[in-house]
Amino acid sequence: ANEAHRMNGVLTGPLTGRVNVAAAHFVRCSGVELPGRPPGRPERSDLRYGYDRHNRYNRTTAIHGDRSVERKPPEPYGMHDSSFAAALALATELREKGLKIVFAESCTAGLASATLARIPGISEQHCGSAVVYRLDTKHEWLGVSRGLLEDPGPVSKEVAEAMATGVLKKTPEADIAAAITGHLGPNAPAGQDGLIWMAVASRAGSPNVSAKSTHLKWMERDIRQIEAAEHLLNYAAEAVTRLPSTMV
Questions:
Q1: CA dist 218 → 65, 118, 194, 227 (Å)
Q2: Contacts of 19 (CB under 8 A, 6+ apart)
Q3: Which of 4, 75, 104, 147 lies most in the core, judged by the most C-beta atoms within 10 Å?
Q4: Does residue 178 contact residue 130 with C-beta atoms inside 8 Å?
Q5: Of 232, 201, 21, the residue nearest 8 (C-alpha)
Q6: Which residue in 110, 114, 116, 145 sits closest to 130, CA to CA?
Q7: Per-10-residue mean pLDDT for the chain, 248 residues long?
Q8: Rounded CA gap, 19 and 124, in Å?
Q9: Contact at 8 Å (CB) between 82 and 230?
Q10: What is the pTM of this model?
Q11: Within 13 Å and on the Cβ side, how many CA atoms surround 137?
């Protein structure tokens, strides 16, 4: 049944779309405030965005105190959103070269892998993802040394590279591995709020591991996670273009 609902003026429903509540620790829904706002945040902090019946964003409103700002975030769920486009680009490169990929994801918690998995038939190129959200799983699952996790710390070039090489070593059928670690906030250490490190390791080429960092543009945590996953998919696609076809 295509039952529609009105939520703060945005049309939602099981088939017409959904409202994704981003980062605000409480959201006013039909006049009801859910608790949990962190200290220092304005008394009102609404962030609303939803889809129309054509699966397109209709509007976004961020309200901070008395200030209202219209925004249009990246579309995380439509079949033509930028994250899905990045996944398609990666899948195309993998298919053309006959390569397989595996992921190691910390801050994205498997979202890059899940986005790639939306493509039919991708199992021919996609081996899976190790979601290593905690320090212990980075160490126990992928062999990232405790020394690196302490200094320079989990959000670093060294740890990203160790995650990529570690998951590649654990996945013999994979030709390339892409890893990401970062801090989406809140309460990030100084200089690390919105910082992500990505790394790609392969079984061919010299050097066979590379890394890149960037600061995320969005402030809302769940939008940051989507943005980070998109960055990883794009970075992996760029790396695959530089690799030779089917590596033995």
A1: 19, 24, 8, 8
A2: 7, 8, 10, 12, 48, 49, 50
A3: 104
A4: no
A5: 21
A6: 110
A7: 36 32 31 40 37 38 43 48 94 96 98 97 97 98 97 97 97 97 92 96 83 94 94 97 76
A8: 33
A9: yes
A10: 0.69
A11: 13
Structure tokens at 55: 């699966």
Q: For residue 47, give the H/E element and its range.
A: strand 45-51
Cα torsion 169, 174, 176, 177: sign: negative
Comparing CA positions, the residue from 163, 177, 174, 180 lying closest to residue 110 is 180
Would you state the pLDDT for residue 86? 96
SS3 (DSSP) at 3: coil
Question: What pLDDT shows up at residue 84?
Answer: 94
CA atoms within 13 A on the CB side of 157: 6
Cα atoms in the Cβ-side hemisphere of radius 13 Å centred on 73: 30
Structure tokens at 97: 């070269």
Residue 184 · residue 221 · CB < 8 Å: yes
The residue to which tokens 């008394």 are assigned: 43
Contact yes or no for 201/142 (Cβ under 8 A): no
Show contacts of 238-241: CB within 8 Å, 24+ apart: 239/176, 239/178, 239/200, 239/202, 239/210, 240/90, 240/93, 240/94, 240/97, 240/99, 240/101, 240/176, 241/93
